[in-house]
Write a structure and sequence with these properties.
The protein is built from 12 helices and 10 strands. It is α/β, with parallel strands linked by helices.
Amino acid sequence: MTNTILVPFAAELPSGHILDAALAIASKLTSHVHATYIRPEPSAAMASLPDVIVAAGVTATTIEHESAAHAARAKQQFEEWRNRNGGMATPDEADQTWVGNWSERTGDIETVVTRFGRIADFIVLPRPSSDNAVTQRCFDAAVFGTGRPVLVVGAAPPPPDLTDHIMIAWNGSLEASRALFAAMPLLRRANRITLFTALNYDEQAVDLEDVAASLREREIRTPAVLFPTGEHSAGVALVDAAKEHGASLIVMGAYTHSRLRALFLGGVTRHLLAHAPVPLLMSH
């Protein structure tokens, strides 16, 4: 079975270690890495510019030329990265090497990420940043618009082996369940698995023993179980546990409570997006 991994690019979207994180999945699962560059529609981009910028002589043609030049540079960097890491441009049935291809789409980032994210097995993104609206728009489209698992990557390089120690943040919620089952292909290849739980369960929640039994039935190793220590919040405790126990990946549901409430109260999702020491595999 071949997995598809969508990696969106745009002029304002940091690339950082995004491709390396996609490769960390592709090295474990037979995969096609789809790098998709999103170019703005020039007239729409013009409409969003401040008057002072327009008065300075910026035109739709200027925007189109600059976008094309940036896309060309990004494509060259992608191809160099693919060749350096042993990828292929087209699939070869006789060769199990991973495939990486490049495409360009025109439109707003939410529309493109939602459209192509819905037919991907994984989406790989940079962490959203409060000082970069494009990262937040891309994250929102992927998490809330696609229904697909999203690998969120910080500024640090991803671990050499994402599946070395997978930590599952479990609170019995629908979102946590979706994240858990989205991670199954990676969990099957994990050297260690830890269930971390800190939140109270409601009456419909699946408890830890049943989760462990479900993993065993799928021939996935029995997880260790961790509970928070001290008086820290769940988010702080999870970050501390990931550091202390050497997690390589955290699997978690995104925004178990309403997103608006999470923004006002801090929320586990918000804390992990800011402070997690390793990539996050998230699902809503």
